[in-house]
Design goal:
By secondary structure, this protein is α+β, with helices and mostly antiparallel strands. The protein contains twelve helices and 19 strands. A six-stranded antiparallel beta sheet has the order 3-4-5-1-2-19. A six-stranded antiparallel beta sheet has the order 8-7-6-11-10-9. Strands 13-15-16-18-17 form a five-stranded mixed beta sheet. A hairpin with a 4-residue loop joins β1 and β2. The longest helix has 106 residues. The chain starts with 6 loop residues before the first helix and ends with a strand.
């Protein structure tokens, strides 16, 4: 019929328009959804490489900060600081100062991880070195006059890659006494850089960037060093400068570069990774998301116009429910993440407090051990003073008596009444007095000589050659006042010609602690017997110490060498005597000590090398 409306055509036309409109809406929706999602995905991918840089910077910063604490601890050691004060004031000369301070510095090097050498410089330039000696060319600028801990490096030295640190030595009032130049091993830093490189995998490269004399360098995971200017693409990035405190992810063309500052030394961590690895799979994810959004838009929008309205309504209800469930799950996940972050922060605080407490405990233990050594020396002085009093008193009395007899003889001679009998009486009295003086003076001299040698060895801590059997007798002579308290018999068996080069003061402290331990814990009023047997093993010496006292309970044997362990706490025991023996044998003498089972009493076996090597050299001032 002319002029009539073709309903079928109109229906298809309307359907075509609706379909075209739906398609346009779907495309716009896909584009608007994909663009911000793409940016977020790129930021998420870049945060991975930045995370590696931040983690590396935190780990390296913790290592270096720990080394700075070690440097300050070495500079603040009380005994070494006191010797430096005595030298600066002129109380001791250069040679004595270097001789006495060397073992103390050596002990600091041996007992401190990663410290490879210490050079102590007095105010007048006198220098003592222990371990690796670094020439002034490697020291930080103005090292002799620094007022705070200053580091330089890592540098290539004759001994390997090292950080050279200058630390001022000050007294309690903050007055400068001198300077310590300390070498620190770079091995822990290299290991950490290599570990973070392995964590990144693939093309990931991790560098420690530092500055020396105005030039920027890169420390690589294999321990080598490369100038920043020689790197293939890093020099083109103007924002990368040594000491930079910027935290950023930079697009360098084929690579992505993450920079994270380190809190100490002005260092920075740099992590590079190929761009295609950083964004691997990202384009595929974006395309997939766009396609999914487009399909959902077409299906959802077309369904409103083409499919039945009830189906669309059910889909919308289902979508609302799903969104609510997602929102609820997201809220629960956020709460859990916040709780996890709070727990981690609390764990970090507890770890820091535990580390601080452990360090305080170590310093307190060192102080108590030093006090215990000085208390032992004080007891030795008091005992010797009391022991010397008797022979010296007899010498004074005999000399006074001889003087009186001489005066009386002189008066008889001057009055011309001197007879033969008077002369014979005087000669007999004189002979007796002289014999008493000679015997007791010799006895006092022996006591003084034994005390002098043992006391000097105990305080100076220097190494020298001794005859072991004779020196053990000198130690026992100095302990005679303590041994008089109980009826104790001591038997020493040692080769007469056994000479060795060692630290006599260390041997004196070991035997003194063992003997006093037997007197205090092993014997009652009935006393007992102590045996000291020395065996020459060629390159080493074995000392076996036994007593027939009460012995040690089986449950206490594994705790004998632990610090502060004592069964007589209420009787004044400190619990440090045997711990001092263990530390001296293992650290000072480079030996071993053990407690063996015995039918009665105790049996300690000590083994140490016969010849010790010097631990330090004197550098030219």
């Amino acid at each position: 019929m002319p002029g009539s409306i073709n309903v079928r055509a109109l229906r298809w036309a309307l359907l075509a328009c609706a379909t075209g409109g739906v398609f346009v809406v779907a495309v716009v929706t896909a584009v608007l959804t994909t663009l911000p999602l793409s940016e977020r995905l790129r930021e998420s991918a870049a945060s991975g490489i930045q995370g590696i840089a931040d983690s590396s910077a935190d780990a390296i910063g913790h290592i270096v900060d720990g080394r700075h604490k070690v440097v300050r601890q070495i500079a603040s050691r009380t005994t070494a600081r006191t010797l430096l004060e005595d030298h600066n004031s002129g109380h001791i000369d250069d040679e004595e100062y270097v001789t006495r301070i060397t073992p103390i510095l050596a002990d600091a090097v041996l007992s401190t991880a990663d410290v490879t050498g210490v050079i102590r410089i007095a105010l007048d330039g006198t220098t003592a070195a222990v371990g690796e000696a670094f020439g002034p060319a490697l020291w930080p600028t103005g090292a002799e006059t620094v007022t705070r801990v200053t580091a330089r490096g890592p540098l290539e030295t004759p001994f390997g890659r090292r950080i050279i640190v200058a630390s001022p030595v000050e007294d309690h009032d903050g007055t400068r006494l001198g300077t310590d130049i300390i070498g620190l091993d770079m091995a822990p830093v290299a290991q950490r850089v290599a570990a973070h490189k392995a964590e990144g995998g693939g093309s990931t490269r991790v560098y420690l960037m530092f500055e020396v004399d105005g030039q920027a360098f890169l420390f690589l995971a294999d321990g080598s060093v490369q100038r920043l200017a020689d790197h293939p693409f890093l020099p083109s990035l103007r924002r990368l400068t040594a000491g930079s405190q910027a935290r950023d992810v930079i697009d360098a063309g084929d690579h992505m570069v993450a920079v994270a500052p380190i809190s100490v030394n002005g260092w920075s961590m740099i992590v590079t990774q190929r761009r295609d690895e950083v964004f691997a799979g990202l384009n595929h994810d974006i395309s997939f998301v766009a396609l999914v959004v487009l399909i959902m838009a077409v299906v959802g929008t077309g369904g409103v116009y083409i499919l039945l309205r009830p189906i669309t309504g059910k889909m919308m209800i289902h979508t609302d429910t799903l969104e609510n469930e997602v929102a609820r799950s997201t809220g629960e996940l956020s709460t859990a993440m916040l709780a996890l972050a709070a727990a981690k922060a609390q764990s970090d605080q507890e770890r820091d407090r535990a580390h601080t407490a452990l360090e305080d405990l170590r310093l307190t233990q060192e102080s108590l051990i030093e006090s215990e050594k000085m208390a032992s020396l004080g007891s030795l002085v008091a005992g010797i003073a009391h022991e010397i009093n008797t022979p010296v008193g007899i010498v004074v009395t005999s000399a006074s008596y001889l003087a009186q007899q001489t005066t009386a003889l002189k008066q008889l001679f001057e009055s011309e009444n001197l007879g033969v009998q008077d002369m014979e009486d005087y000669m007999a009295a004189s002979e007796e007095a002289v014999q008493l003086i000679e015997t007791n003076a010799s006895r006092a001299a022996d006591l003084i000589q034994s005390f002098k040698q043992v006391a000097v060895d105990r305080t100076a801590g220097e190494m020298r050659e001794i005859n072991l059997k004779d020196y053990i007798q000198e130690i026992l002579t100095s302990l005679r006042p303590q041994l008089k308290r109980l009826p104790v018999e001591i038997a020493v068996e040692a080769p007469a010609g056994l000479d060795l080069t060692t630290y006599p003061g260390a041997l004196s402290q070991i035997l003194t602690n063992l003997v006093m331990n037997s007197l205090t814990h092993g014997f009652d009023e009935a006393g007992g017997r102590i045996g000291i047997t020395v065996t020459d093993l060629g390159e080493a010496v074995e000392i076996v110490y036994v007593d027939d006292g009460k012995g040690i309970a089986p449950e206490h044997r594994t705790k004998v060498f632990d610090p502060f362990f004592t069964t007589r706490r209420n009787a004044g025991g400190s619990g440090l005597g045997m711990n001092i023996v263990y530390n001296i044998v293992t650290r000072t003498l480079n030996g071993r000590v053990r407690l063996d089972s015995a039918p009665t009493g105790v049996r300690f076996v000590i083994l140490f090398p016969k010849a010790m090597r010097p631990a330090a050299t004197l550098l030219p001032a």
